[in-house]
Known about the structure:
Two copies of one chain form a homodimer.
Chain A: H1 3-22, E1 28-29, H2 32-36, E2 53-56, H3 60-73, E3 77-80, E4 97-100, E5 107-110, E6 115-118, H4 124-132, E7 136-137, H5 150-156, H6 163-166, E8 173-179, E9 185-189, H7 201-205, E10 214-221, E11 223-224, E12 230-236, H8 239-250, E13 257-262, H9 263-272, E14 283-289, H10 295-309, E15 314-318, H11 321-332, H12 334-339, E16 343-346, H13 356-370, E17 376-379, E18 384-391, H14 396-415, H15 434-453
Parallel strand pairs in A: 2-4, 3-4
Antiparallel strand pairs in A: 1-2, 5-6, 6-10, 7-11, 8-9, 8-10, 12-14, 12-15, 13-14, 13-17, 16-18, 17-18
Amino acid sequence: MDAVDAAAAAAAVDAVAELVDALPDGVVATAPDALEKYRFDWTHDARAGTPLAAVRAETAGHVQEVLRWASRHGIPVVPRGAGSGLSGGALAVDGAIVLSTERMRAVEIDTAARVAVVEPGALNVDVKRAASEYGLWYPPDPSSYEICSIGGNIATNAGGLCCVKYGVTTDYVLGLDVVLADGTLVTLGGSYVKDVAGLSLLKLFVGSEGTLGVVTRATLRLVPAPPPPATVVATFPSVAAAAAAVIELGRTLRASMVELMDQASVNSVEDFRPMGLDRDAGALLLIQCDAPGAARAEEVAVAVAACEVSGAKEVFATEDPEEGEMFVQARRLHFTALEARGAVLPEDVGVPVPRLPELLAAVEGIAQRHGVQIPMVAHAGDGNTHPAIIYTPGDDESERRARLAFDEVMAAAIALGGTITGEHGVGRLKAGSLEAQLGPDVMELNRRVKAALDPHGILNPGSFV
Amino acid sequence: MDAVDAAAAAAAVDAVAELVDALPDGVVATAPDALEKYRFDWTHDARAGTPLAAVRAETAGHVQEVLRWASRHGIPVVPRGAGSGLSGGALAVDGAIVLSTERMRAVEIDTAARVAVVEPGALNVDVKRAASEYGLWYPPDPSSYEICSIGGNIATNAGGLCCVKYGVTTDYVLGLDVVLADGTLVTLGGSYVKDVAGLSLLKLFVGSEGTLGVVTRATLRLVPAPPPPATVVATFPSVAAAAAAVIELGRTLRASMVELMDQASVNSVEDFRPMGLDRDAGALLLIQCDAPGAARAEEVAVAVAACEVSGAKEVFATEDPEEGEMFVQARRLHFTALEARGAVLPEDVGVPVPRLPELLAAVEGIAQRHGVQIPMVAHAGDGNTHPAIIYTPGDDESERRARLAFDEVMAAAIALGGTITGEHGVGRLKAGSLEAQLGPDVMELNRRVKAALDPHGILNPGSFV
């Protein structure tokens, strides 16, 4: 360590001591073993840095305190929700502070205004449960909904399985309290539904991945709970046939779920927890319809017909919500089942629905070319796919090939007029591919907006902007 | 005119000559009589300036040409759609250019991707008609949908009557081509549904009222057309009772329309075109339900019960879509009927739905206090109201009282935790009240983002930011 580094390190130690003093006991963690869990998100990326400290804020005031302090000392801040992110957006950075909202978990339901007022550390499932006590529903449902936080959902504009009918996180955010880089707390929107007063800053903060501010409170729109869904499960000889069915049903049907699993995904779930899925099918479609009353049966008939006309091997329909939920759980196990087999680079590419067959073919080609396994699920009705690139941890050659495949899958989506990320976010894992999608002019707009809101670049450095 | 002014005027004349030369014949209008119609929007505000020229762009290239030219000469640009705006966002400015997109009207439907690719001058109704040929639907439906343009809808994030169930313009914008202040054309989003690659710039441009860029193409999400609605018309002794019914039905029902007309609005529509509405009712609610099949009757029953329990005088329900549409047309006539009576300052304030009775009471009080008539309709299910402040054109005292009332209605909405504009935009009419709602910190964020995207302030100066 030279003299300059030594001086910087001493200054950082002093700065952290100042922060510890400014906040209540137990809010700031500095011990190396306590910090370990704040280094990683679900990408488990070995390139994660080591933070100076982790702050478990308990109030918006703590968040303001941290950001004022960080601005004063020029110390970067990595905001963190539940750490379930799949794009490396919350990976720690050397010399930074991790600012966790895990302790801010209040959820209040206002039935008359039909909103939930939520702190960012509340889990998605906490909001769903609280709303359901009043017959209300918070729709966005990432597969990780039982462990992911609302703050993270907002930061990534999270999607899920019901988006195909009910939309994504941004469609449900009516209001936000946000602490800016300099510690200023601003309130955007509120409990009202329609609002065009000024620029759409509310929507700008949604999906900004901690690069523009830290959300300390959200007002979320709730809707009356829909009727229980009927479920259609169809197997196909190939993913191409399944994709054709998706396009076909999309012409007329507003299904509440249109999920695709390829053969490798079905088999890895069956290996992990046998559920009697057809291991020989080239692909499986899982469709739900939730129109009220007798109309649901009509929707099911449309879904069944679309599968049959597209060459389905078998089509099974059930009106039993519990039986349907069993299939949905199988689908949700995809990522967990894969993780049990090795390390996973989770993809999240999307294309216009009509280009889905081409994307699926491209992914198959990439898997073969690089000799890697890429089991896949897709929110097929939205054209949003999750190829999961498997590699052997510690095997450099395996990891190298996986990363090549990861980049090529993104390139394939871009070539098909699509996106490198439909719902996970860019984070650190995809930051290098963003400009290939957006082009230099849109990248420059991203940088200008970032600079306007976080002029000293304190927030989530090394992330996408 | 002093020497400096004379030199500036001569320079402007030269600049306009340069623009006329750069664009095809007939694209640039400079004759005073031709310019007259580009001075005003539907606010007919006498404070409108006189532009140097009006450019009727025919291609995105023309728009780029204009903005490059404007940046070079430091000449401001007022973007303009169909001129049906109600907030003065397209009022001309002395010494500026009006940039109209009225000639860019192409509409293409892609049924497989379920999108419309639309030029900004296309009318809302053009998109609806083109989509309906394929059994598809573009939901946003401002009352002016037959005469307002998609570009204006995007600029204001326009709402309408079906928003209460189907959302507003921003919920349907998947992609935009935007020409920035310096003439750069950027493409944001595309034909894919889910996208979180980079900051949500797409959403930032929606509702930016021509202050950040000029939209030259939009990709709009379409949905399968819903079944025909049933209609419930209920009369109430007072607006308070009608508002109570709105809150009651909102607890469990997703109606596809929940409109309120007060007695004065009902009577002015009846004066304009007699339709047999109940002139004695204190308020009228117009509710539509469009659940498929037998479920629609269940929804109607919920709506009827909510009206009855809230003290409705009469409740009428019809399953005949044409009969229902007749009532909707009566509702849509509100503004036209009022304009036949005198000049109107159209309000657009919104509050959380539970505060609706307080807002309606406040508006009544303001009308009485200032001795002005304020007939009102409301997209009541969204808490978004349109008090219409009537004044006598040319009568200074009448206009003064109307403007006082206009400001006080906004103040009342802000005091109730609401917004000064739910769907019309801030424009020039409400620019002075924006900070009262947003506060200085959020105003500063608006200014910073504006400066980041339009550093020389070329776009729509004198508007809200």
